[in-house]
Amino acid sequence: MYNVQFTIKPKRILHFTFYILHSSRGFSLIESLLVIVIVGSIVFLMASIPNAMMLIGKSRHLSLAREIAAKQIEDKRTISYINLVNDNSPIADNRLSLLPSGAGNVVVENCSEQICTNGEHIKQVSVTITWKDNSKLQNVTLKTMIGEGGINQ
């Protein structure tokens, strides 16, 4: 039998490993393009975040204004036609304080002759909510007709 011994010198292993790791120098064109695409995508996403946040805020304000106006319309519909008087009154809703510079009013008036041509007993109710978004005045207006013998009468 043969007695063979192998000796491994640590210096040669380190030299071989170092050679493998550093035998390919630089980056390939594909790797460079991939890095550019990834960095560009991240920059694009970061640039669109402020615009998205602004749109979310506008949407939230518009939704709240519509909710307030719809509630005012429903409140007026609970009043019978006989007790509904012509007026222009401000809205007293606590949620208006959630809108920047929020305000609103309810206008009750007789139906115009252009719409009610046969002299029907109908009142037109208009609810307008106003607020400011980025120093630009925004508003929501909902209108309805309430008549004698109509809904909830």
Could you characterize what this model shows?
By secondary structure, the protein is an alpha+beta fold. It has one domain. The chain has two helices and four strands. The protein has helices at residues 10-21, 29-77; strands spanning 87-90, 103-110, 122-133, 136-147. Strands 1-2-3-4 form a four-stranded antiparallel β-sheet, covered by helices on one side. A hairpin with a 2-residue loop joins strand 3 (122-133) and strand 4 (136-147). The chain is rod-shaped and about 115 Å long.
Topology, element by element:
Layout: H1 10-21, H2 29-77, E1 87-90, E2 103-110, E3 122-133, E4 136-147
Antiparallel strand pairs: 1-2, 2-3, 3-4
Please give a quick description of this structure:
The chain is an alpha+beta fold and 153 residues long. It is 40% helix and 24% strand.
